[in-house]
Amino acid sequence: TAGPLATVPDPRDRLLGGLLSPDFDESSCLSRYRAALYRRPSPHAISTYLISALRRYESLHRRCGPGTSAYARAVERLRASSPNASTSPSADDCSYLVWNPIEGLGNRILTITSGFLYALLTGRVLLLHSSGGALDDLFCEPFPGSTWILPEDDNDFPIRDMGSLNGGHHESLRSVLRRGEEPGAAGASPWLYVHLRHDYSKIHHDQQFFCDDTDAALRRVPWLVFQSDNYFVPGLFLIPRHETELSRMFPRRDLVFHHLGRYLFHPSNTVWDMVTRYHDEYFAKADERVGIQVRKFRWAPISTDELYGQILNCTQRETILPVPNVAATGGSDGQPTKQKAVLVVSLHGEYSEKLRDLYNNNNNNSGSTSTTSREAVCVHQPTHLGAQRSGVQEHNQKALAEMVLLSFSDAVVTTAVSTFGYVGQGLAGLRPWVLMNPVDGKAPDTPCRHAATMEPFFHAPPRYDCRAKTNGDAGRIVRHIRHCEDFPQGVQLV
Ligand code: GDP
């Protein structure tokens, strides 16, 4: 039942083959139509069905978004204690999904994407709660003529303290199901909190979000509020009632984030300025750009030397970086044939320093190194901020700028299980070389693997099998959702 494919977008096509709406003022968001000039063109076709679903969603958002009379009515009904209390619902009533920021920017981008796909499938309007200014001057608006930010000046927004909601709240899906009530039944609460943080995997009632009957019942609840730290897109593919729609939107299931990510996330002019300044200085003249994302997790300790060795081993073994040609120092018979710019993004500065030392040690006066393959290698790193500070605006702006720079690469090396890396590879449209997690503090024998797809992993999929009504295995329920090769407890779309 796959829909027809639009032609593969022309690289100069500023609307990315119809993915983007033409209805925006270009100066308000320079990156929207210009990123295509910097990024490799996507070789992946977009289904015309997805394009029309996006245009339909944009009209819905324009009709129901903040500032409209429909929105005012919906907030009014929310303020009343039950859906039918003050005004009776009508056919053109709108329903909403409210996202809340938790964890780092990579996680946030993936949960906004997951929420957006859920909104597309269920006819809801996605609104982002920019708690504490979490999203200020970070992204452009993705939907023309409207905003996706939940109004902050709405001090009397009826659902208070959304950041501190948890699965045990009286108005949570978990509590409603535990009480044996039907979500959205007559007289029930007009809003519910859905808990999709990774610890939900111990609680069947939270995971029933991914069951057909719960999904149907939730349609009747005008406001859903959620928190998640997971790319739960594959979970939506487990719900039978969305199967046909999803297969039409995504004939290639492993491209969901690639398409939706490039549709939704356009850096603000401030962030775009960081991106282009860096690009123009360091990458504009290179023949080839290699992005290396190095992330260290507390749960996967490894020493700097060991990890540096792993990066070198991986990049040289896979011929991503050349082997420096010590013997050729000064005796080279000509100019390098290729300029390779290496972008290292990391909280830590040591890896790019060591790589720079390596490639500059037998410097051939041009500031780069002769190598066996006569490639000149230059190594750059935009920032090394030391530690994660996801509550700080400038910190998030730099993180976004670096994800976007990573996405301009011709080849990417990422760290296993990092959502930061998933965003870079997905926007780039590249299958990354993944630096495998350390084993007992040591680099594994296979330093990196070429990922099977560019799709992010769903790290904590539901364990609850809706049909068997007991614990099951989300990696074995439908054909196109498999366990991740390198992270067996997770699943991914294939
Ligand atoms: P994950 O923890 O690797 O899955 O990625 P997240 O993006 O969710 O969280 C890590 C956060 O740490 C980022 O959002 C940044 O705030 C910061 N961070 C991690 N690596 C880098 C990096 O290479 N560059 C910058 N600027 N920030 C980073």
Automatic annotation (TrEMBL):
Signal peptide limits: none
Keyword set, alphabetical order: Cell wall biogenesis/degradation, Glycoprotein, Glycosyltransferase, Golgi apparatus, Membrane, Transferase, Transmembrane, Transmembrane helix
Bilayer disposition of the protein: Single-pass type II membrane protein
InterPro entries: XG_FTase
E.C. no: 2.4.1.-
Keyword Transport: no
Record-level Gene Ontology MF annotations: glycosyltransferase activity
GO biological process: cell wall organization
GO CC annotations, alphabetized: Golgi cisterna membrane
Primary subcellular site in the record, as a coarse category: Golgi
Subcellular location: Golgi apparatus, Golgi stack membrane
PANTHER family membership: FUCOSYLTRANSFERASE (PTHR31889:SF60), FUCOSYLTRANSFERASE 2-RELATED (PTHR31889)
Function: May be involved in cell wall biosynthesis.
Family (UniProt): Belongs to the glycosyltransferase 37 family.
Protein's UniProt name: Fucosyltransferase
Species the sequence originates in: Urochloa decumbens
